């Protein structure tokens, strides 16, 4: 499905019944990277997966966007689709948008997964390489694509390891520069709802130290670290991740069941 938000065509998927859960993907990803989570949660919730502008099947922004621009777009989408009291689940870049939105708008709960938002200490080049490579590697594990995984990854390894990243131009590269340099820690104390932080212990893109910092700054936050998981902890340890989410959203599940 698609919705026009100020001239930008935004792609989304929705299924299930119950409390509204919105899945907000990371940089370079799309609704497919959250598909295993969507499929598990739709049994108990009304689940919305969104392609941010510039990713998946959504249009690119008309100009370089900041986190604030993406947050404003999300707010308009929520109002247009009448999504009440959403539970936001944001991975990486999606966590940035979740932080900024929930600090100033009504939400029910927030789940931040390997979230960005603490000003990175590494260079732009490093983050560009890490996000691009890791996202592609996970996408290539999906059915119908995985048979081409090795040949594609061989080419990509050579590319992201070189200076070729400088040749990537256009609105999304400029957007990336804006986004990655924005520190959101000053918004974190303004989040007044329960927040679950889920991190992979081996996350190199947004290290566990970022999650600990968020736990300190967000008033009602708790951190869970998944063993032997990386930046895509929810895919690396999917079953454990779902058990943790199920526990955090137990009240919302019971409320939905009581209405049946």
UniProtKB/TrEMBL annotation:
InterPro entries: AB_hydrolase_1, AB_hydrolase_fold. It holds the Pfam family Abhydrolase_1. It comes from the Bacteria. Residues 21-237 form the AB hydrolase-1 domain. Gene3D superfamilies: alpha/beta hydrolase. PANTHER family: ALPHA/BETA-HYDROLASES SUPERFAMILY PROTEIN, LIPASE-RELATED. This is Pimeloyl-ACP methyl ester carboxylesterase. The lineage of its organism: Bacteria, Bacillati, Bacillota, Bacilli, Bacillales.
């Amino acid at each position: 499905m698609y919705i026009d938000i100020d001239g930008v065509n935004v792609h989304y998927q929705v299924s299930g019944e119950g409390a509204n859960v919105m899945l907000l993907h990371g940089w370079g990803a799309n609704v497919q990277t959250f598909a295993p989570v969507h499929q598990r949660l739709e049994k108990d919730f009304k689940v919305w997966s969104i392609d941010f502008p510039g990713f998946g099947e959504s249009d690119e922004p008309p100009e370089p966007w900041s986190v604030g621009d993406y947050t404003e777009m999300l707010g308009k989408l929520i109002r247009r689709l009448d999504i009440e009291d959403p539970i936001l689940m944001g991975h990486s870049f999606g966590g940035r948008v979740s932080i900024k939105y929930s600090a100033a708008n009504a939400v029910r709960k927030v789940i931040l997964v390997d979230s960005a938002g603490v000003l990175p200490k590494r260079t732009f080049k490093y983050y560009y390489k890490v996000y691009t490579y890791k996202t592609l590697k996970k996408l290539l594990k999906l059915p119908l694509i995985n048979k081409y995984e090795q040949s594609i990854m061989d080419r990509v390894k050579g590319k992201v390891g070189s200076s070729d990243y400088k040749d990537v131009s256009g609105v999304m590269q400029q957007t990336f520069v804006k986004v990655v340099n924005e520190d959101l820690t000053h918004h974190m104390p303004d989040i007044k709802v329960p927040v679950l932080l889920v991190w992979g212990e081996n996350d190199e893109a947004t290290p566990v130290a970022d999650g600990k910092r968020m736990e300190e700054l967000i008033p009602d936050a708790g951190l869970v670290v998944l063993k032997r998981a990386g930046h895509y902890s929810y895919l690396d340890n999917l079953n454990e991740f779902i058990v943790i989410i199920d526990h955090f959203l137990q009240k919302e599940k019971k409320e939905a069941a009581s209405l049946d």
